Amino acid sequence: MKSAIGGVVLTVVLFAAALACWAEASTARRMAEAQRRLATLHYDAADDLDDATSIWSRLPWPAGTSEADIRRQRATVNYWRTEYQPLTDLTLATGVEALTDPKMLFVAANASFRAAAPQATDRKSAVSRLDSVILAYADVLRRDANAIDAAYNYEFVSRLRDAIAKAPAPRPGQQNARKAPEPPPLLDTPLDLPAGMTIHGAPGGPPPGTDMSDFKTISPMRYDEREEQMDPGKGKTIQRKG
User: Fold this and answer.
1) pLDDT in tens, 165-179
2) Which domains does the chain have, with CATH numbers?
3) CA torsion through residues 45, 202, 182, 105, sign
């Protein structure tokens, strides 16, 4: 009797483990597809990750895709879709709703900087908004002292804030004439790709006046061209020494 009960219990445990592995594999596939689309500049709002979330993804697995990974992916997509306000609100949450994940905090701090508009004509308001951004990066560093990118951004925003605060006040009549710098012109991009800054950086091109003839593009030969050159070329005669 005991052996039969033990067999039933073992069967249930193995079935639960198989179900957990199947759910994790399904979530991992959908997460990989979402990350692939993000890397190829397709910022889809509908990524099917909600359907992959289950009770198994909410468990504290030592490895694998968790609900926190899905939230980070969603936050990254929102950032590159320039949807900054929902992420900025995350840095202002307190109590039980306060963020504790340093990676999520870092994305939210980046969004706060983008929404701060430091080039605004109202210097006092710009400095106040940058103070909030500095606090957001400091919160990231308090939770992860090894966050190198957050440390760099903290230093950058701090210097930018000091530069704006110490800049001379505009003269009368120049307040309205001051405008934000225009972004550099964008190169022609395919219609299925977003314009402007992307996850791979800013679109660029050769500097004006660069002689591109110094750069040679080398492409692999076609199969038929390789077949025509099967015979090895005649190299230089090797002279024996001694």
Assistant:
1) 887 766 655 554 445
2) 1-67 (no CATH), 82-167 (1.25.40)
3) positive
